[in-house]
Give the backbone structure.
Amino acid sequence: MKLKIKPKSELIYILLLGFGFIIILLSFFAYSSKTQMDESYDLIQGSARASDKMEIISLLVEAARGRTRLTMQMIYEEDAFIKDEINVELDILANKFSRARKQLIDLGLSEIEQEIISLQNDAILSTLSLQRQAAEMAMSDDPETVKEAQKILLEQVYTGQGIIIDYFIKLEAHQKSIIDQSRNDATEHYKNATKIQFTLFSTILVLAIFVMAYVVRKTTLTEKELFLEKEKAEITLKSVGDAVITTDNEGLVSYLNPVAEKLTGHITHSVVGSPVNKVFKAFDDKNERWLGDCIINYLKNGTYNMPSNDIILYDLNGNSIDILLTIAPIQDLEDHVLGTITTFQDVTKEKALAKRIEHQARHDALTGLLNRREFESKVEQSLKLYSEGTTHALCVIDLDRFKIVNDTAGHTAGDELLRQISQRMKDILRKTDFLARIGGDEFALFLSNIDVKQAEEITEKILVVVREYQFLWSGKAFKIGASIGLVDAPAKVSSYENLYHAADAACYMAKHEGRDRVHVVTYDDHNIAEKREQTQWVNRINEALDNDRFVLYVQDIVPLSDDKSLKPHKEVLIRMLGDDDKIVPPMAFIPPAERYNLMSRLDSWVIQTVIEQIKKDHSDTVYGINLSGQSLADSKFTSNTLAMISACNIDLSRLCFEITETAAIDNMENANSFLLELQQLGCFTALDDFGSGLSSFAYLRNMPINYLKIDGMFVRQVGKDPTSRVMVESIHAIASTMNLKTIAEFVEDEDIRGELINIGIDYAQGYYFGAPEPMS
């Protein structure tokens, strides 16, 4: 709070500044006078030049008129000798005209004058030529020739001469305007010069008087008064741009600068002598104290605690702003406190910006919800706040079919959908609940101090809101859904990470069970153990790949007609060998492989192994390879696979790549591009589980496929359920129209086979024809 300023004599600086400024003004005075004289001289010269041009133009006009007059006299003169004398005079006038015209040009012509002279030249050349012709004809003794000369003179020469003289009149008028303008400009310059010189002289005089008065005044003050006034002035100068309030040693206001007047609403002359706590209404929000009272207490007791950064200033009208301030004492040479000086500045905008930046750091930029880091922090704080015995719930919400919106309408539409759906979910929640966007189309929700039943009711409402929400974009309507994993947690949960993983695993189970549902687990539910077991599968899968502990099985896909063009097919199925060399079923390792992004490695291994098998198998059997949706979304996998196939040196028509309808819809753009490139290389493509989606036929038209595999849930009931039969017939009819071959899955008995043959299905696959067996 203590501010020491050393005294320095400033008299010499004022003198140097004052006399320096006077010298500058005197120099400017001299320079201005010279500039005005030069400008006046230029105006006089311009006027004189214009007068000279007018005299020359008068000579030119006189010469032109004289030649016309003498030519006329020559025509009507009968005496030949007199005609000769007139002809000589014509030549003299011509020379006189030429010399005068050259003098005019030598004086310099403006653009306007050059334009007039140029136009005049054309008239002069034509008129002089006719004039000479008339003069020569006038010298003839033939009356008819003389009469013709008279006609040329009257009808043409006089007319041309009039045009020439008109141009001379224009030049004279132009020179007169120049003379008038020069006279006016000279008068105006004289007036301006008089004003400037008077102003400079007055300023110099006033400044000299001010400097003299200042010197006299400063020399009459005592050294102590000089130091005190200098200290106040120097501190004030250091606070330029900031508000400044000074007080005496009793805490009475002695000065407010203009910025302080603006921020407090008080005028200096109206508050001088008033207690500072009545004028400076600043409240330290953090320490809960009025700073005006603190200043007065300091002057009385000599103790003071620095204010916080949370200061609110209230003006005369009760309006408030955020300020940042410093308070320092004013001291004399003996360290006696003579008063205080408070400097402060308006930081309302800066604090608002800081709050906005802080908000952005804690919230998702797209939806305005909490982000992952802030959500985690708030949940951990809430778990610590509530006493033992209370329960909470944490949910992971994953939107279903969101990727369809991104792929078909673009990411802008997807962003808008996320904004709208997040607001609808937020409207359902209580004020104490936390909703966050974790990433992409995944959200997290923490319901504090709630039992499982209430938490389920809230999540069911969220399901309904999402299910019934219809997103409209560019004339298209989209419907989405949600899968929610809910874990009810006691207050004594030790780790947020474990709690979140439990909810994440529950969300995965909700998707696995059919989506559009809530899967509920407790913190010690066996599903959490299953989640941990899934993470252990990552190492087991990687070790199996590294140690060649995966094997392939195949199942026959049999033609249902005698059509020789229908090649035999086999679907390739992957199996894993356990530690005891027994077969591990695919549903044990496929879900964790999908969960932890290992499917691309498995699919690459399968493709490479099938290629090696085809090199050994010299039949025409087509091998069907299933690709996961995860692989379709992996651009590196697709590019590597295309490169591998291009370089494998086998009959590529023996490869058929199968993708499920769900995987195709989730990765529509990538799937179409990849399948098309496979077909261009010579491979076959197939769409598996067709009919399971709600929009199957809508996507089928644009997909580059050769085979359509009908979902087994329709095939099993084809002989018993009329609806299933109609579905199979419809799928086959559409496939035939599109030149696609149909494959019926899950054919388990002769009755189903017979029905499929009657419908016209091309291929059948199922246990009726044989179970999967190791690929030899």
Notes: Residues 195 and 211 are 24 Å apart (CA to CA).
